[in-house]
């Protein structure tokens, strides 16, 4: 998948008027933006496997470094993610209908995460990437460990989530624009509030309240 910088398009405003964003990076090449200018889209792909592999590799490295007690505390989150990524569509549908929890997996979850990255024959939708990103952020928050996720990956997940978030989240996005200070993307409408991309994603998934706003000095120090 190409990593070049694409053209800058105008703000995208869906019918729900809950999200607007300016895709200044290659996110615009992989999301279906119906209102962008017409051009050759023969290279557009819905396969997010490369970005998923990058997230899983970082997550596996994080888990490798955890103490046994900390690893046990996030085992279920990791097990659910691995099950989802290995399951077929039919298995996912059956589990959703029966509301079954994933079966217990091997304790060597980092190895299972890395094994998923080698499945090059399977195309990965944005939903799989989103599941990996939010799990990685959850694990990082729960264990107090840093994890590095590409800003384009965070932006793609954030935009997709904002379009389909629960009504309370979308209601907030009608009144505030959440701008990622570490990525070329934003979601929402209204006055700007600038914060870290990971914090915005955690808010969109209901893990936290509104992310803390950064002022100019804090942004400079972060950069």
Descriptive notes:
There is one protein chain. The longest helix is centred in the middle third of the chain and has 18 residues, at 126-143. A 3-stranded mixed sheet has the order 2-1-3. The model is unreliable at 1-26 and 28-44 (pLDDT under 50). The protein starts with 48 loop residues before the first helix and ends with a helix. It has helices spanning 49-64, 68-73, 75-86, 89-98, 109-117, 126-143, 151-164, 167-173, 197-204, 216-222, and strands at residues 177-180, 186-188, 192-195. It folds into 2 domains: 26-31 and 150-222, no CATH class; 49-143, no CATH class. The protein is built from 10 helices and 3 strands; from the N terminus they run ααααααααβββαα. The protein is 48% helix and 5% strand.
State the main characteristics.
223 residues; mainly alpha; three-stranded mixed beta sheet; disordered N terminus
Strand order of the largest sheet: 2-1-3
Q: Any low-confidence stretches, pLDDT <50, length ≥5?
A: 1-26, 28-44
Give the distance, in angstroms, between the N- and C-terminal Cα atoms. Answer: 27 Å
How many beta-strand runs?
Answer: 3
Number of contiguous helices: 10
Order of helices and strands: HHHHHHHHEEEHH
Layout: helices, strands, pairs:
Elements lengths: L48 H16 L3 H6 L1 H12 L2 H10 L10 H9 L8 H18 L7 H14 L2 H7 L3 E4 L5 E3 L3 E4 L1 H8 L11 H7 L1
Parallel strand pairs: 1-3
Antiparallel strand pairs: 1-2
Helix pairs in contact: 1-5, 1-6, 3-5, 3-6, 6-7, 7-9
